[in-house]
Structures are given as structure tokens and as C-alpha cells.
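Subject — a protein and its fold
Fields — amino acid sequence, C-alpha cells
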Amino acid sequence: MKRVAIILAVLLGAIALFPPQAVTTTFNEFYAELYKETDIPYANISAAQKLDIYWPDHFDGPYPVIISIHGGGYLSGDKMGPDALVAWEGLRRGYAVVSVNYRLSSEAVFPAQINDVKAAIRYVKAHAQEYNLQADKIAVWGASAGGTLSALAGATGDGGELSDPSLGNGDQSERVQAVVDWCGPMNLLVMDEQFKRSGINGILNNNSTSWGSQYFGQMLTEVPEQVHKSNPETYITPDDPPVFIQHGTLDDWVPTQQSVDYAARLKPILGEDKVYLEIMEGAGHGGVPFNNGRNVAKVLDFLDRTLK
């Protein structure tokens, strides 16, 4: 594992400093070293419904789990993308990492994406003994759309209208024990107005071709009830898991106020000690301020306190 740790540290630095071909070479070397099983189907109605599992070396199992949920505006992204690479840093702390694909909006509209994430959680729990995982020590971690899906998974808990037991393992709990949300959109209907008030020339969503409208298959403003159902704040209850939130002040994809407002709604219900919010001065929508080793260590420290 020492060699893997060194390669991962180099790789995280290479993303910021070197051209793509150099990063690819380093990635391939690192990936070959991992203990893994890939493209495991957790449901069977779409080719997208697959997950990868990575295990740490030199730690005794069963392992606590980080489920990595990729971003991409619900219309792009992959379980082998940069979100998974960052989560792999958890291997150095003794976590298993599960990276999940889900149906994109070009294939199926909301709530298919959260249906899939919850099905993946159930699959992990149903097969925890087989894969040497701790079914009661699961964190979800995502950025952008992945942050929203992580927050939704944490807030909705078991069952409810965003769960589809027909996707498999319907007897399993969907509860997770920790949430990490990097710059996730929490209420799409108010984003355009928040950008206007902030003075940031952001990506607007209240139009028919926006990623947000594609998520619902029609204009956001025409389906306010569906948008309400997609908002994590709709489902907050006192037994929700601890939530770690970070957002950049210069984010031009998701207004910073989205995370400020979400944390403000969480704290009176969960308690101040279960909600961490950091507004990152000068940071944009993800990237190096989030992915650098020091910040990732901060996230993993939160997970250590919560899960271990």
C-alpha cells in the first residue's frame, strides 16, 4: 500500500500541474496497483447501473465504506472520473471505496438518478459480508450533481417516494452514516435569482435547454412540484447523518448561497455539531481547491470522526 499511496499523492498533484497525457500515465500505473472488482451490476434495467469496489491494503476488514457519486449535471460523468480518484484517497485510511454509475438524464429523468443511488446503497449492504464491508459504516461523497445525490441519500433515509425497491434488494436499509457534499445544487428554481443577486455571471437554468431542465425532461418552472421533490431540504429529519459541505465563492455553476441556505436549514434540525459548512474564498466549481491533498484530508478527518 505504501507504493500505492505514493502514486496517489503524485497523481493528485499531477492533475493540477501536468498535461493530460502525463496524468494518464500516472493514473494507469496507480490503477493497476489497486485491489478492485469493477462493473458489478447493482440493478438490471440499464447498462448504467454498475459499480466498482476498491479495497485498501494493509488494513483489516470489514471496511467502512465511501460511496463515490460522480457529478456532471445529471447528463454526463462516470464512475471512473475524477470524483472517484479523489475518493480513492480514503484507501490510505482503511476505507473501501465504491464508485457508482447511475442513469443520466439523456436516458431517464428524475427521480431515476436517486433511485439508482439508493439501489446501489442497498446492494452494498446486501453484499457487505461477501465484499468484506461494514454495512453500518457508509458515507456518500459527491461533487456538484453528485453532492446533491449524496445529500438526498442522507436526507431521505429508508423508503419513501424516491426509493424504487423493484431495482433489487428491497429488504435492505438505505440509510447512510455520513454525507459529503461539494458544491451541490439544492434548489434549482432559485439559482438564477441567486446568481443575479451575487453579481456572478453564472450558468442560468430557467430555460428549456439547461442541464436542470434536462434533469426533469421539461422546463424547471413548469414542474415546481418535481423540483421540490428533488430538493434535499424537503426531507430533513433529526435522525439524518452528519453532513460536511464545502462551496467556493466564485462558483459560476451553482451559487454559493445554495450551500449556505442548505446548511441553515440543516442546523436547527440536526444540531450545530452535525453540520459542517465551509465557504472557500476564491474557489470555483470544484477543482484544485477541493481536490488538493490538504482539503481531502480534512474530509477524511470528518469521516474518521463520524464512522470510526
